[in-house]
Design brief:
single chain, seven-stranded mixed sheet, 8 helices, Rossmann fold
Amino acid sequence: MQNYEKYYTKNITDIIAVIRDILPKDLFFIDTSCGDNCFSNEMLKNNLIENYIAYDISPPINYDGIINIKDWLKEDAINNEINDNETAVTLIGFNPPYGFGSKKAKKFIYKGFLEKHKYCIWLVPISLKLFLLKLYKPLFQKEYISLPFIDINGGKEIKQSVLLFVGERLNVKNHKSIFLSRLKNKIISKNNYILKRTHNEGIREDATILLKKTGNPVFFPSFYKPEITKNIWWQINKTGIVYKKASLEKQNGKFIMNGKKITKHLNNDHKYAVDSNIYVKLSKLKDIEKLINRILVLGNSKEFYDLVNVYKPAAITIGWLREFLDEKIN
């Protein structure tokens, strides 16, 4: 069987507590990606549901209760056993795989909506909040910043910022266009600069800032070029400018920044893979020094830490960065 990442929330008891009085009783729950099936059984033990059916494409060796080892996204609702009871009021959820840019989780939500289950309960990335609000009347919603999840295979813990959403289905006619639409409006630059986030597609000759972009609360190390005509880059860390002789070179078809790895205990030469989507490339920017100073202030602030953690598991988006740049440039 193919191996899949299996990160399960450690806060099942807390989630049960906050939703205890939100939903009506005697619901039939459909867990679309149940993992070890802990959530369904806790819901059953706490009399929050009457019964359930659970799906998971790759459950762990040890799990609780009965699991249909199937991909729920490929299941036909008409053949679902709950349809034997036409009076059953159904609840769909819970913590699906997210996928790149939360696209997989969005598919789970939309399929549940199409199947016309009256209620939903989803633990998904915060970026899907607007999408959920277009399809469901919110009964409860709470954002968790850096909620811990445990890897059932290796015991590794990660932290994700997620939304717990409980809702009642709305009668939406244009739901397909909602599903196909972008989660957020595309941000268009107000200024005459070029911002690129690419992976091994090269770096423009007029690029003057290579800004580290990551899902962690870190802007550093980043690089900027004080003189456009020279291949001499200054490296900035949290403490400011730490190296003034970095150089951009092409090796094996990819651009590498020759800089320094500087910590409390290290000051070594280091090659940074700047020709990747970890770095955003900015060209045609004016007043670079002023912008770098603002980035240094922001990158060391609690505001930045809180902002970036809201975007987990996704990285900082290009749209957010454009808004930030427009604000600081203006």
